Each structure stands twice: as structure tokens, then as C-alpha cells.
Queue: 4 jobs
Job 1
Amino acid sequence: MKVLTLIPIFFLSLAVCSAQKESLTIGPGDMLHISVLESADLEQHVRVTDSGDASLILGGKVRLLGLSPDAAAVAIEKTLVAGDYVLNPHVSVTVEHYAKLNVGVVGQVRAPGSYETDTPRSILDVLALAGGLTDMADRRITIERSDTKEQILYFVSNNSAAALKEQAMVFPGDTIVVPRASFVYVLGDVGHPGAFAAATNDSNMTVLQAVALAGGTPPNAVPSKARLIRKAENGAYIEIALSLSDMQKGKRSDLPMQADDIVYVPFSYARNMLISINGILAAAASASIYRF
């Protein structure tokens, strides 16, 4: 009767473990708790060797490197069956302590570096360790898993509810890469011409947003003759007429900008005709970078 009452409890625990499936795989130095339902004598606490093996009380060494706890339990069950130690074993494996490894955080954070951890942590927690994102950070970051080299894209939202709800997990040994945001340029007759990082909540920038960051257009400017300079796929620069004044009045839809786009607002009709693409590109190359 005791065995019959224990079996449902055991399978209930397996169901819970399955529902909370581990994403972090077993690695060298991890401390495991191994239990076998059919034999309490086979319960043990064992550390995974540098080569990725665990030494069982019965069955000798079994390779568990890179396996999830559920997969490790299956591997141990097969070892016990193959050695005729247990006819139909039900094994449970849990990771009591993960080996301390470093999480690398590089790129546009205030304190890039390597941070020691022995447990999975949320992405916001790890970014906080690194001082948070800089004003130049692109919110589209990459997490690379240490074991599989899988790259996970994660967007750091400015919306607190979304940021807390949709957090990715970072595991010991992972690397986080925070790239620099792309830049757009607003030159000519605007409040403060220069380069602006597309560090908005969606890491995109529109023409009106960029012009607003540049201080807008003064009364003497000629926004109706504005130009957009964009680099084509073949590397050549193309010039696009931009009806900025109609956009500002709501008569035309705002236009999304691409990385390295240049908006040029002329000072007058005559000066607009005199300035070439090469002149605008040269001005962009020496433009001041603004951080917002």
C-alpha cells in the first residue's frame, strides 16, 4: 500500500517538473540530486565532473553534459536497466546548485563586464548589474547561450508592464550583446543640426521625430524643399524630395527613416539649389552627436 500511495505523488512531482521545464542544461561542476523511486538506497547527491560525467552508486559513470534534468533522468534510467540493477526505474534529477559561471555583458551598457552567477536570472536583473542601457543603446539585444550558441533576440521595452511580463532568462555562461543604436542626421536650417540615435522605444525613427529632436524648423527655413539622402543597396546615395512642410501640417503621412538617412532642410530656395549631395554627406560626417 505504501508503494501504491507513493507512486501518484512521484508522478505528480514529475508533472510539476515537466511543467516547469528547465531551459538551463547540466554542465561541469553542477551539483545534482538523483533519486530512484524503486530504491531509496540509490538516492545521491553528486557533482558533475569537468568531463560532464556523474558517478552513480550503481551503473558507474553516465554522461549528462548538455542534458536537461528530464533528459538526464532518462539517461540514468537506461543505465540502470542496461546493468540489470532496476527492472523499471523511475528516476528524478534536480539541479541543487549550478556551477558559478560568468555572464558577459558587452556593448552599450554603463558598466560592461563579466558578472558571476550560479543561477538563472532575468534579463532586466543582469542589465541592472551592468548599470543599465546607455542613451546610445539599441533596445534590440542578443543573448547567446553558452552551451548551444543559440542566439535569442530580446527587445527591452520602455513599457514597464511589457518589460516585466516578457522577460527572457539569462543563464550562467551566457553572453549579452547590446548594440549601438543606428543614427539619423538632420542638417541645415534646424534648431541644432546633428546626428541623433534612434533610441526610441521601438528603436525606429520617423522624419518628424528626427526634426523635433533637432529643435524643429525656424520661421525662415524652407521645409517644403527639404531633401532626404539615403544610401541604396548598391552603395550609391539617392536624393528624395521631402515635403516636410506638408508633414508638419498633417497633410502628408510621416515617413519612417532608415539607418544613416539624412534630412536636409534648406535655409533658402537659392542655397538649397547650391548644396550638392557630396556637401551634405561631408556635413553629416562632421556632425555633432546628440544624446537624448
Job 2
Amino acid sequence: MKISLSKKQISDELSKINIHLNQIESFSEGTSKSTYKIKTKEDTMILKLFSNSDYNTIKGKINLLHKISKYYKHAVLPTNREPLIIQGVPSYIYKYFNGEIFSKIKIKNKSFEFGKIVAGFDVTLQKIPLNQSVVSDEDLLYLPNQKYSDSRISKLTNMAIEMFKTEISNIDLSKIRKQYIHKDLHYHNVVYNPANKEHLIVDMDGISVQYLPREIAVSIGNLLLGPSNNFSKINVLKAMQGYNFILALNNEEKKSIPLFIIQKKLGEIDYLHTQLSETSKENIEEIKSINKFIELSQKALKYTLENYDLLMDFFLKSDFKLLKK
């Protein structure tokens, strides 16, 4: 959701902590538009605001990002240890990374390289200790059950919820690893610099404990369909090979990927409809953008429901192994 703060309000607040802006611009990529690129005389930085969170929640996220930075250099590292309050909204700042979002770049073996990025981050997150006793399956398997004004979407999401509840009984959850994951690691949340082959993982405020295959299910769900709404088998295969090159999933974890695609797409649709309800009717372009993302999520969800057994068979039986150098 876009936070209604003027550039002057942001500038005035930052000047109180000795950050004096020469220039500020809002990012318009994706669905989260509460991120700003700010330039001072000395540096360029990114300001991320959290309108729906409180001080302590954002402080916890900042602490977690600093822990991750001890093991991983390609992730957002806030320059502040305590949340900055901008007009009552908690926020953090991190240094600008010069690159393009991964969806816009052209590199060889793109989906394979992205799978490696996802797996590399997951391997790092395995180093962050977690208390298994406070992680409940009820929380990890949460499904939104919002009623939508569009009956077609309600029918689709209800079918998805029923299938999820049915198919979860066919998965041995005791064999699926739990750990911290990004939870939204797709092409729009990786900034890549082709010149030096460096990258930065962004939008990390959702990091929490989940089942491990839920991570790769995010990017697979986005790669699932090609331009003609057919199964994008090669891209999905390459992404899984890239992931497996760094981190191998066991059979039960591979079997569960379609299930977690369903869970993720249900969450996306719910989040996007919430955004839609909070967007002014006068903001036609914003409404168009959100509806576009809703349509993409619906198509991927519908395909997964209609081809669930085929997809489960694909992930379970395909050979994702490549010889490591």
C-alpha cells in the first residue's frame, strides 16, 4: 500500500537525523510502493516505510537482517539499528545497489541462475537458529479465507482451499524442513548487476520461519506459465536445477511444491484485493496495475488446481541434478 506522505514530510523528518536530501523518488515497480530512492550530497540510499507495522516489529526485522548480514553479503542491511519514525511510520534505510530488477535483465541461463540465488539464500538462512517449539503447523499452513465481490474469484479460491486441505494429508510434513525463508523471493525482489554479476535481495521484511519448499514454490509459481498460459516446463526445470545445484530437496519436499504454490497464490490474491480496496477509485493506473497482478495470480492458481497431479509428478520424478564443478 502506498503511504500518503509528501516528499517534503520525508525530507523534513530525515533532516532531524542529519540526512539532508538533494533528491527523492518513489519506486513504482511491483505492488509495494512505499519505498523511496533518496540522494544526499554524499550518498544514495533506499528508504523503506512500513505503515501497517509498529516500532517493535520493525526493530525485530532490523535485528534479523543484521544477523543475516554476518553470513550473507547480498541481502539488505539497514544502516540504522533502531527504526526511523517518519510521520509516525516506522522505517529503515539501506545503501543503494546499482542494478536492475531481475525480471528486466538479459543473461544466459536466467532461470537456472535465479534458482541458484534462491538456494544460496536459503543455505544462509539455515544458519539462523530457530526455536522449533514456537513454530506451529497451524501458522505455517495458514490460508486466507476472504470473501470477494467477484464470484469467479471466490469460486476459484474456495476450490483451492478445499484442495489444499485434502492434499495436505498426502504429505508427510515431518520430512519437510522448517527454517527461515524470504517468503516472497521472485524476479522483482532481486536486483542484479550484469557487469559484475553481483545481486541484492530486497523486500526482506517478510522473512519468517516456514517449510523450506515454500521458498522455491514462490519463484516457480511465477515462472509456471508462459505467454500462452501453457506450462513453462523448461524455465521451471532450469530454476529447479539451479536450486538443486546448491541445495537438494528430498522427495517429500519436492512433492509439496504444488501445494505451496496454492498457498502462496491464495495469499497473493488476498493481499492484492486488500490493496485494491484501499486504493482510491480516482487512481485508475494503480487499479489497473493491481488487477493485472490479480489476473496473473488467478491464472497460476487455476493451472495448479487443474494440473495438480501432473505437477506433483513432474517435481517428484524430474532429474534436477547437475554435476557440481
Job 3
Amino acid sequence: MGLPSGIYNVNYRQDIAVFRTGVHWAFFIGFLIFLFLIPMFATRSQLNTLITIACTVIAVQGLNLLMGYCGQVSIGHAAFVAVGAYTSAALVNKLGLSFWVAMPLAGIGAGLVGLIFGAPSLRVKGFYLAITTLGASFIITYVIIHLPSITGGVRSLDVPPPTIFGYAIDRDDNYYYLAMVMAILATYCVKNITRTGVGRAFVAIRDNDLAAEGMGINLFYYKMLAFFSGCFLAGISGSLYAHYLQTINIEYFTLMDSVWFLGMLIVGGMGHILGAIFGVIFIILLRQGVMQVAPLLIKTFPFLGVEFAAAMGLFVLGLVIMLFLVFEPRGLAHRWEIIKTKVRLYPFPH
């Protein structure tokens, strides 16, 4: 990545630093202060949206690690989020464990399930691997429904809120801080994974797995590691979201959610840390906007009918994803890099 004029790297530590200049640190600290102050002026509805964004960012960062960096196609990611949610709920309800113990165990549980369905990745890839992960979605859903003594089956399952020092984190303004801290930690971990030898192995496998194997990269090990890491973050997201809602149902983790996770990654930009964040924010805010606009359109144009309002969300979101694939296939993150480069080179943006 280019640096502003007059800024040079003189050692390896400076070259790999995430924040390279004082301006970078100032923007980052200012952003953290802004996040900290949001609950003081945001409404409950806005906090709900922000918490949903934070939980979704964790899941999509896992999918980005799996698909964007390692190139392993997955369209069953919501099922692994469900594994994390139900595992955390079962550990708290049945075994009486604390949320702070149940959440990492839920991530490990989802990661282990991901290993089971990621094992075929050594033999199949591309479309065939996508169908394998699609099968995982149906199998996991079937297992959850047919274990009513643990998961509640098709009924909703109550989940207690997290507690810390005997204080329940059950309000939106309190849970907001927990969700944002977890999202920042997840993003930081993924960023550092991609900067290690493991991350470079993932990229090599994504670009050309035969060439990677020829260079001595153990394909099976790194593919399994990618599945475990991606599903681990999905499990953390599921646990965090379940304890926020305080009730979960299998209908909350549908195949359509997996498709939207993939759409968020496409819009934001695969293989880019900021891509997952941009994509989640863009799609969720777009969905909220459509929900606000649809009733107004029906009120203004009654001949459109209620069916139009119900289908408008899917139509608009599908159209947006299609337009991004055609006109901006590298996502919003790529466009952001172009904007930053032009600013650095100003007044010579060419």
C-alpha cells in the first residue's frame, strides 16, 4: 500500500504495521471515541441495528477468511452461526456455564462441525464444494429440529443475557459495547492471521492450489484450518446474537441468511478486511431503507399492491448484488483504496 509523500519505511516492523503514521492513529482513536459515544445519542432502534451489524461483521469476517482468502466456497455459513447459537444456549441452560465460557466453547463447537463438512474440500472445489456446504445447511437444520430436549426443536429457546460481576448486560446500550468490542477483536484477529505465513498459504491455495501444493503447502491442513477458523468466528457471532435476542429459533438461521452473508462479502470485496465491514453495513442499511420506503410507495401508489412491498426488499438487494458483480466486482473496499490513493497523490491523481 502506498504511503503519503515524505513517509518511508526503514525497517520490517514499520513495513508490516497496521497504523503507519500519526494521522492513521489519530483517525483510529477518533473512530473509537465516536463508537464509544454513540449510545449517548442513538435511539433504541439505531442501537439494535448497530448490534446486528457488529454480530454480522464477525460472521462475515469468518466467511471472508474462508472464502475471500482461502478460496473455499461456502453457502451454508448461517448454519454454523446456528451451531454457535444453540451450543452457547445449551451450555448456559443445561450445564449452567457462564456466557464468558460458553461463547468460546460455542466457537470451538462450530469450528469442529465446520471441519466435518470441510473435509471434502481436499477432493472437491468450486461449485461442488458449494453444494457440499449447502448440504451442511440442511443437515445441521435437521439435527437442530430433531433434538428438542436440547435445542427446543421447532419451538423458540430462551437464552439468558450475559452477566458480569452479577450485573446483567440486558439493555441495548450495554450490549452495544460488548458487541462492538467483539467485532473489533474479531477483525483484528483476522487481520493478523492474513499477515502471517498461514494467511499467505491461504492466498496461495486460493490463487492456485496445485502450485501451492508444489511449493510444499499442505493443502488438507490449511483448508481444514480455514474451515475451522471461519466457522469458529461464525459460532462466536451466533453465541453473541443469541444472548442478545434472549430467544432463538431455527427460523433465524435460514439458507437465505447464508446467501446474504455471501452477498455482503461480494458487495464489500472478497479478500479484504474492510470489505466484510463495508458489505455488512451497506446491505443492512439498504435493507432498513427498503423497509422504510416500501410502505410509503404502497401508500402513494396503491395499485402496486402489498405483494410488491413484500418482494421489494429481495428485488432491490438482488439487483444491487448483480450490479456490483458487473460494475464493481472487487467491491467497495477496492473503491476505497482507489479513493485513498487519489488523495495521497493529489494534485496528481492520475
Job 4
Amino acid sequence: MADVVLVTGVSRYLGGRFARELSHDPSVQRVIGVDVVPPVHDLGRAEFVRADIRNPVIAKVIARAGVDTVVHMNVIATPTSAGGRASMKEINVIGTMQLLAACQKAPGLRRLVVKSTAAVYGSSPRDPALFSEDMGPKVMPRAGWGKDSVEVEGYVRGFSRRRPDVDVAVLRLANVVGPEIRTALTDYLALPVVPAVLGFDPRFQLLHEDDAVEATRLATCGDVAGFVNVAADGFVTLHQAARVAGRPTVPVPGPLVGAVGSAIRTTGLADFSGDQVRFLSFGRGLDTTRMRADLGLQPRFTTREALEELVRARRLHGLLSPTLVRTGEQAVLAAVTPALRQLDPAREEAGRG
């Protein structure tokens, strides 16, 4: 049972929301949120400590507070939110190394939970239908969040070998969407026109932000250990997702995808990295057996429902949205029905003749 919990990355949406939700748990005595900048959102009864996990001072914070559980949520997904790719990698990799070094020196530490990503599996045409936790990528992620997360997981494995007395849980989350969170995928689906790689319609799973928070809470307060895939039930394809969002898709030939991605990144509307392009070409599927059996999570939202929550919250109702299509169909039907009724008597008379 977690008594004193330290949560990293609380100035970001998911980390801050988790710290707030955990602070409402009466079984947890104290929640300490750390980050380099104060959060703009409410942390509940969680205490905020301004600290940089890249600095060895984080060891003093853990020692002085008597922390027994560390939840590492400060692994950044997009370079735009970190001030560039170099800063992103430094926070993700160097920050994790320093945090684990601090955990190594904490004799009272009993549990470590790390937020990772399903991007560690990469995306390729040789992928299995579903990745289980004991499978590796067919093609290693070459850059970005996926590559950083592979390195982070490597350091976590090393820590687990050095501190076998500490229970370590690593959550490989599918792409998180919802009413509030902003990610590369949510920004991509909000583009006025969604670029799609010509000839591809990948399928993928999503995860609602509520279920992501609940998964982290279960990992923090429960006894699961090891790697766990976390994703919602069901799949959507890229073109289905664009249709739900009411966005038209434009096919982009493979040789031009890099140039289109660079143009989109320049505008700041969405991150369209190389790894993102591969994901939007080949997709990804996750086996969530361990999520249910060991973590004990039954997601409240399916992949389709999580996507619809995003659409409602961001008001992504373009001309192609299902709601407007149905409204148009109803309007047309209402207009032609009177005329059809007028034709019925004439048809009946013709039949008698």
C-alpha cells in the first residue's frame, strides 16, 4: 500500500490530474508533486515541490519526505512542449537516469511506477496483429518519444536488477485521448484536412484519459509488477477516425510525406515526426490480457467512445461528421417525402389500369 507518493511531471496535464486524483484517496497519506514549473491546474491536497529530476537534489526530496512510492510521469511525448528535441531527450533520458539514481539511494522505497508508451513496439508491416508484453519491436523506433521510451525502459530494467526489493511496474499506454488532453494524435485529428499516407488505412487502439489515470492509480496502489499494455477495447482505422472527427483526408504519396510533415510541424498545428508517419502507415495492436488479469483495469471507454469524447470536447464537427451527414439525410428525406406521397395515388391508379 502506498503511503507517501512522489509524482513527477505534475505541471503537465496527465501528471497533474493523476496527482489530484490520488490525493483524494484516503488510503494515501501524502502526495508530493514535483516539476520545474508550478502547475496551472489544481493538485487537490497534493503538495507541490519545485525540483528538477535532472538534478541530484531530487534524492534529498525523496529522503526528507520518506517517500515509499515514486510515480514517474515526466516522459514527454512531443518536442514542441519541451522546447525542442534536444530538451525533450534530456528530460526523458537524463531525467530518468537521475531519478532512478535517487531511487537507488532511498532505502525506504518500496514501489516504482513508470508511464511508458506502446510506441516502444514501433510500427512496421511485419508487426503481429497484437503485441504482448514479452514481444519486441520488429523495427526499433528510430527517433522521438518511442526511442526515448525504449531507453527509459532499459534504465528501469537495470534499476530493477539492482533493487530487487522494489516492485516496479511499467505501463505501456496506447495513444491517450479525451476531453482535455492534447497530444500529437489529437492535434493531428484536429487539422482542417487530415493527411494520410497514400495506399494505407492503419488500425489502432486508443485510451481515454480517465482510464489512463485509473490504470496509473491501480499500478500505484496495487501489487502489479512488470510491463503492462494499457489500451481500450476495439480498433478504429485512420479513415474511420477522420470521419468521426468530420475531417476530410487527403492522400499523400510516400515520397512527399516528409515534406508535408515538415510543413505541418512548421505551422505548429501538429507534430508529424517520422515515427508518427510510420504509426499512421501501419498502426499498432496491443494484447491487454495482463491489464485485466493483473492490473485489474476494465476500461470504461472503448476506442470508438474515447474518440467520440475527443470530438465532442474539441468540437471537431466538420462537414463530413456523422452527425451532420445524418442531419443532411433527414433534411433531404423530409423534403422529398411529400412529393413521394403525392405520387402514390397515381402509381396505384396506373396499377389498376
